[in-house]
Amino acid sequence: MRILFILLITVLTSSILPAQNSQAPVEIYLKQGNDSIRLDNNTVKLKKEPFTLIFVYNQPDKFNGVYVNTSFTRDYYKLEPSETIKDLNYLPQKVYSEHKFNPKKELKVNPEFFQYFGYNPNANWNKFDRLIKKNGKIIAYRKVRNFYLVDEKENIPIEKMRFSIFMIFEVIDQKTGHFFNKEVYRTKVKLKF
């Protein structure tokens, strides 16, 4: 009788609960040497040597870019998943301009502004070192050798980095209107050197 009751509760609960999204619009990895780590609300201890951010766009026809904030402060990083980014509607206006194909191999560090790591399938340039199309996905690689401190206008090579870096990665749906952005996906990482 007890087993029948547990089975009945399991069936009822599974039909009431919404299905889990099994595939995020983007998966983000960090590769340094032979080690590859999925960035998913975690802390990563790095060697003081270059690394590569890898973006796997699982739905490239729908979402083809990630807003990235890199900072020494925890302003965005400390937000709980249930908390909305206060300036979500203005993220596209808070993006730094980027060079084609990431020639400086850098991440811009600022507590308020973002970089946009995206690609335009109709353009012959992007903000990555390389792109690969595979099985309906886009895999984008961005090498990092330097941190550019925007306010100080100073470039710090990874070998000289002494502080932890806090990063958030944000995917938004802008199809709902210019100032009515909807958050689709967010994750974060703390990089320790």
How does this model look, in words?
With 193 residues, the chain is mostly beta strands. The chain has 1 helix and 13 strands. The strands form 3 sheets. It has a 5-stranded antiparallel beta sheet, with no helix packed on it. A 5-stranded mixed beta sheet has the order 3-13-12-5-7, with no helix packed on it. A 3-stranded mixed beta sheet has the order 6-10-11, with no helix packed on it. The longest helix has 15 residues, at 2-16. The radius of gyration is 19 Å and the shape is globular. The model is unreliable at 2-22 (pLDDT under 50).
Blueprint (SSEs and pairs):
Blueprint: H1 2-16, E1 26-32, E2 35-38, E3 42-45, E4 51-57, E5 65-71, E6 106-109, E7 115-118, E8 130-134, E9 137-144, E10 146-149, E11 154-157, E12 165-173, E13 182-192
Parallel strand pairs: 3-13, 6-10
Antiparallel strand pairs: 1-2, 1-4, 4-9, 5-7, 5-12, 8-9, 10-11, 12-13
Question: Features of this protein?
Answer:
mainly beta, 5-stranded antiparallel β-sheet, 13 strands, 8% helix, disordered N terminus
Q: Which segments are poorly predicted (pLDDT under 50) over 5 or more consecutive residues? A: 2-22
**How many angstroms does the end-to-end distance come to?**
57 Å
Which range best describes the helical content: under 10%, 10-25%, 25-40%, 40-55%, 55-70% or over 70%? Answer: under 10%
Q: Name the strands of the widest sheet in spatial order.
A: 2-1-4-9-8
The arrangement of helices and strands along the chain is: HEEEEEEEEEEEEE
Report the principal-axis shape.
globular
Structure class? mainly beta
Q: Round the mean pLDDT to the nearest integer and report it.
A: 86
Number of strands: 13
Number of helices: 1
Report strand %: 35-45%
Tell me the major beta sheet: 5 strands, antiparallel
Determine the oligomeric state from the structure.
Answer: single chain
Task: Supply Rg.
Answer: 19 Å
